[in-house]
Amino acid sequence: MARLLGQRPCAITVGGEGDSFATQLRGFGLEKLYVLDPRAAPQWTPETYAQAVTSVALRRKPKLLLFAATPLGSDAGARVAARLRTGFISECVDFAVEGERLCARKAVHGGEAHMTLRWLSPPPWIATVDLDALEAIEGANRCAPQVIEDQVTLEAPRTELVRRWKVDPRQLALGEASLVVGVGRPIIARAQELSRLKEAAESIGAVLGVSRPVTDAGLMPKESQIGMSGNWLAGDVYIACGISGSAYHMMAIHKVRHLIAVNIDRDAPIFKSAELAIVADLFELLPALGELSKTTA
Amino acid sequence: MKIAVCLKHIIGPPSSGLAGTGAPLRHSPNPLDLSAIEEALRLRAGSGGSEVVVVTAGPPQAELTLNRAIAMGADKAIRVWDEAMCGADSFFTAEVLCATLRATGFDLILCGSRSADTGSGIVGALLAEELELPLIAGALGLKYDERTNRISADKKLERGVRETYTTCLPAMVTIEHGPNEPRWYGAGWVHRLLKQKIERRDLRWLGVSFPAQSRRVEIVAVTPPRPRTKLGVNVASLSREEKLRMMFGQTRTSAGQVRASDRPEDAARKIKEHLDKWLG
Ligand SMILES: Cc1cc2nc3c(=O)[nH]c(=O)nc-3n(C[C@H](O)[C@H](O)[C@H](O)COP(=O)(O)OP(=O)(O)OC[C@H]3O[C@@H](n4cnc5c(N)ncnc54)[C@H](O)[C@@H]3O)c2cc1C
């Protein structure tokens, strides 16, 4: 992006260990890393992050300001754009430069269409970036970015963070879970095995979901269904066991980062999309996986 | 407490047939705004003397959404519209909503955290900025403490992390999908729909004029969804098979594909290795 715009890529972070962070960022092509003093704010919340980034942006005058389209990045990015009263495009999947102007493409109407938008306001242009559209690449330049300690003075925050906690990963809804085990039609004929499979999923810290035939058979509630007419997954890993890979199932899992498929049929269609393909009987494999996690945990 | 909820009426692509073929367009309230109404109604039930006012800036069809809000239980509904607002961006919409909210008064403003159509998700932040209100964005459920006049809300982060924020009223809160499903209709809805009139306002009444700098972003094109291109992938280095795979929307390359048909214990170990690597 920086090359396309004829600019230098820089990053902003909050933290005391700027130098060691800069070393980690070696090879990603960043030229400068602005490090903010963590003591500048009583708490780091979307509100204070936004204030800090706004103040750096006013001083350093970037052309483009990118945030990750995560809950924090989307929140802070919108606040910065509102504060600077400048053009904001969220969840971009692609960028292009046309002459002096920058365009961004994003999904609209729940992915039914894509829309390309162009910034008209003067910079900084602000965008949040869909992380699935990106892949970290390390370049040949092994230089670490230059660390610049930047001072910011912030207004007293008006929202207060009073509690931060973590939900037990196994209690999460399928759409939010990082690790999901899916079980397909074969379980219907062997319903007595369900509790064993549940236990195995639990011991690897996964949420258990099923394909539609299983909910249709009444074996699991509708909330446990993965697929177009059920839950859409967006986690890190999905282990699909005894699931053939029908389009209705697959369209709801394309956001998952890694797919592991377990099937006895060597030619099961799901293997085409899987990163790890395991030809095995799920009723043997899942309990074995559960046992393995228990012994190594 | 006076709770104002800002609503967006979404006019989507036709539910069947292709755009431009004259098939009827899909009309619906923005789902997250319905969640915001639900939160407002729950807060009203919990504190006496509260009122829920719903506001939309939209064309006459947007009254479908206001009627849904009235049926759910809103006490008052206002629609602002002016031909000049066709193609308005979030900044102008927010300005119009601000003027309306100033005229009606409020203690708490709610809206969905983003709209389901173009979903820039900035309107809440703009309202907070313009009205100088504290903002909690992406809240799952709201609680109001009458004694301290503070509200608190949970916010969902990634991987099951949750945060609770509190702030003093008046405040702006944007709502995310939470455990409180929006009700379909509230008790007495027929009566309310018959009795309640939607107030209609235009820009002149509000004293808002069309801004000089009208738009900060403009729409260049709307296209069928394309598979995500991975920025940074060196396409030249991919095999023909991998390129085809990418063209058909698959973003993973098959480079890491492993086939195992060993004993279950060995296969399990292989999965475990990958889980440890991928989940960190
Ligand atoms: C409008 C519509 C909406 C739909 N929505 C959904 C949806 O939301 N979600 C959904 O899942 N489906 C949905 N479907 C159904 C979908 O089309 C498929 O029928 C369904 O996904 C198939 O489920 P399955 O893969 O579990 O079963 P199957 O296709 O029967 O596959 C079973 C697989 O298990 C393998 N197998 C058998 N025994 C074992 C064993 N012991 N160990 C390992 N592998 C084994 C087999 O080789 C086979 O590949 C929808 C269909 C329609 C028409």
Overview of this structure, please?
The complex is a heterodimer of chains A (297) and B (280). Chain A has 297 residues and is of the alpha/beta class. Chain A has helices at 2-5, 18-24, 46-60, 71-84, 186-189, 194-203, 212-216, 247-250, 282-296; strands at residues 10-14, 32-36, 64-68, 88-98, 101-108, 113-119, 125-129, 146-150, 159-166, 179-183, 207-210, 237-241, 258-263, 276-279. Chain A folds into two domains: 2-150, Rossmann fold (3-Layer(aba) Sandwich); 169-296, 3-Layer(aba) Sandwich (Rossmann fold). Chain A contains nine helices and 14 strands. The model of chain A has no long low-confidence stretch (mean pLDDT 90). Chain B is of the alpha/beta class and 280 residues long. Chain B is built from eight helices and 13 strands. In chain B, strands 9-8-7-10-6-1-4-5-11 form a nine-stranded mixed beta sheet, with helices on both faces. Chain B is globular. Chain B starts with a strand and ends with a helix. Bound molecules: flavin-adenine dinucleotide.
Which short descriptors sum up this protein?
heterodimer, A: 297 residues, alpha/beta, Rossmann fold, 2 domains, five-stranded mixed β-sheet, five-stranded parallel β-sheet, 26% helix, 28% strand, elongated, B: 280 residues, nine-stranded mixed β-sheet, two-stranded antiparallel sheet, 13 strands, 27% strand, globular, binds flavin-adenine dinucleotide
